[in-house]
Design a protein that fits this description.
This protein is an alpha/beta fold and 229 residues long. It is 44% helix and 12% strand. It folds into two domains: 138 residues, 3-Layer(aba) Sandwich (Rossmann fold); 77 residues, DNA polymerase, domain 1 (Orthogonal Bundle). It is built from nine helices and six strands; from the N terminus they run E-H-H-H-H-H-E-H-E-H-E-H-E-E-H.
């Protein structure tokens, strides 16, 4: 069946999750972060994800903003910067203004011009996602922004992927689901979506029962994968 709907994870897929730490490190007053920002960004993202998985299996859901803060606190302690309250606040403020990857606006515009339905499906809370979409200026090329908050559990729970069909009324194999998280792309493959894993860091494939249909270095070729020319 032909692809009619292209759905994207947000953080790490459309929006650069390392941008907050990278930008803060370049600002006056945060010199202690200059050499540590890549390590902090990596710890922050990993803990943020780990806390969503643990909360999902423990049936202890919370707002994604809470796990974002918890992950940052762990990361700051891991790199020895836990006492810098100004740095913590600046990093959190910047997370609401994450930069989109360079190819994102043109890619989404091409999908819309080709008649595709487009959406975000994210662990992020609606206010967080609204901030990121507005900051990146991509709201006009998205039909919807879907958040796990409407079902109360984080990805890769199947009820999250159900949101796409409920919103767009499409069959599972009409959906091209795109994520920078290998486990997310794998989970969506198991659900029945056509999937693309955006493997920007050339990481190994996750050892899971399902695999993404496509592995890409970035989002540039998504319109072609969706069947557009």
């Amino acid at each position: 069946m032909a692809i009619t709907t292209c759905v994207f994870d947000a953080y790490g897929t459309l929006f650069d999750v390392a941008a907050a730490a990278r930008q803060a490190a370049a600002e006056p007053g945060f010199g202690a972060l200059a050499e540590k920002w890549p390590e902090l960004a990596g710890h922050w993202r990993l803990k943020q994800l780990q806390y969503t998985w643990l909360r999902a299996v423990a049936d202890a859901h919370c707002d994604f903003w809470d796990v974002t803060q918890d992950g940052l606190d762990w990361a700051l302690e891991a790199v020895g910067l836990q006492g810098d309250s100004a740095l913590r606040q600046r990093l959190l403020d910047l997370y609401w203004q994450l930069q989109a990857y360079p190819e994102v606006p043109e890619m989404l515009s091409a999908l819309k011009a080709g008649g595709m339905q487009t959406a975000i499906l994210s662990n992020g809370s609606p206010p967080m996602l609204d901030g990121a979409v507005q900051s990146a200026g991509i709201g006009d090329v998205l039909d919807d922004v879907l958040s796990v908050e409407s079902v109360g559990v984080f990805k890769p729970h199947s009820s999250v992927y159900d949101l796409v069909q409920k919103r767009f009324g499409c069959a599972r194999d009409e959906v091209l689901f795109v994520s920078s998280n290998g486990w997310d792309a794998a989970g969506a493959s198991g659900y029945g979506f056509v999937t693309a894993w955006v493997n920007r860091m050339a990481e190994p494939m996750d050892r899971l029962p399902w695999k993404p249909a496509h592995v890409l270095p970035d989002l540039t070729t998504i319109p072609q994968l969706a069947g557009l020319r």
